[in-house]
Amino acid sequence: MHRSGPYLAHVRGFPCSYCKSPGTEDNPIVAHHHGRRLGRGGTSVKVSDYRTAPLCAWHHQDFHQDLRIADLSKEATDLLLFKGMAECLESWIVRTSGQVLDDLQAAAEDELEASGTD
Fold first, then answer.
1. Beta pairing partners, 32
2. Which residues pair with 55 in a beta bridge?
3. How confident is the model at residue 45 (pLDDT cuts 50, 70, 90)?
């Protein structure tokens, strides 16, 4: 699975996708891995670091209690998190002048190989 410490640090620089908190010492921003790997299920299987959205620690914990955030439905939570992922990725692509595109291709190939799908 593709891991990128610099990208996770980039994600943690964004406000919480739900409450827009910039994070504090008591409630820091975490890079929430969201989605399932192809051909795999379960919440203990992490996806690529490029499939992360920023959440404050409180809302990250809230998500893991019920697979949704606060009063949002699971579908609305998914949309919110995918929007957060897209914002982070767009910013990262601009910042890294496209290097991430090569990394994303490699991550996609890793997921396909791990799932046994061609």
1. 53
2. 30
3. low
The SS3 call for residue 56 is: strand
The tokens 């990128």 sit on which residue? 4
CA angle 89, 79, 67 (to 5 degrees): 105
Give the integer Cα–Cα distance in Å for 107 and 84. Answer: 19
Q: Which residue has the tokens 């990394």?
A: 103
pLDDT at residue number 63:
93
The pLDDT of residue 88? 95
Q: Are 20 and 87 in contact (CB under 8 A)?
A: no
34 φ/ψ sector (left φ>0, alpha ψ -120 to 50, else beta): beta
Q: What is the DSSP string of 37-49?
A: -TT--STTS---T
The pLDDT score that the predictor gives to residue 18 is 97
